[in-house]
Design a protein that fits this description.
Bound molecules: adenine
CATH architecture of the largest domain: 3-Layer(aba) Sandwich
Number of strands: 12
Helix content: 25-40%
CATH class of the largest domain: Alpha Beta
Order of helices and strands: EHHEEEHEHHEEEHHEEEHHE
Largest sheet: 5 strands, parallel
CATH superfamily of the largest domain: SPOUT methyltransferase, trefoil knot domain
Shape: elongated
Number of helices: 9
Distance between the termini: 26 Å
Radius of gyration: 21 Å
CATH topology of the largest domain: Alpha/beta knot
Amino acid sequence: MIKFTIITLFREALEPYLKTSMMWKATEKGLAEFDFVNLRDFGLGPHKSVDDAPYGGGDGMLLRCEPVFAAIESVKATDPEAKVILPTPVGEIWTQKMAREFVSCSGPRPAGPSPWAAGANSRAAALRNAPKQDTNPHYIILCPHYEGYDERILSIVDYKISLGKYVLTGGELPALIIIDSVVRLIPGVLGGEQSAEIESFSDGDNLEYPQYTRPEEFRGMKVPEVLLSGNHGEIAKWREEHSGTV
Ligand code: ADE
């Protein structure tokens, strides 16, 4: 069982997706669990404020440390081993390889000092090199909003993850993408062959080849002859020749 606890101000943006299709099936089968923590519950003062203006001036508001630390610590109180993911455009670019590692590995938090800005990514590298553990991984995804976050928040983060070289308004979409790409790799979520796929390409990236279904011809576009031949050797060869990587 893999668990994701999502710390967000916008649960309603995430829930419909996680209650649909494969994500829902994964929870129904007991293979994944999604939990939400409302960051507002840990806000300060009568308005439950979670953000403030940046020191030194500048536009926008930043997530404050106090509510974020309190929210994360409330989750860690029940599971100290849970790892914290921060979606951020300046994080390590998310890949299929990382998704696969997140499914199977919940490594120990590496010992030693925890430098802020550089720390999270080097921790991610250390975790990737740690021996695989057969545990029930629990990931806390902190979804920042507004213009950013107080840099000291990085001291409590294990993985800084970027979904690409562009800037979104918040961490909710990245959270869904991370969750989807990890959960679909859990054996049993998509179907029997999925775990085999993980074994065969465990050193790197998935192979993706062009696929076709009925009809054999559509608007003059024909399915490649070899795929209709029934010759499994030739089909495998064709697929390999036409594979791309992700
Ligand atoms: N938050 C805002 N933009 C992001 C991105 N590209 N990746 C991850 N988190 C983000």
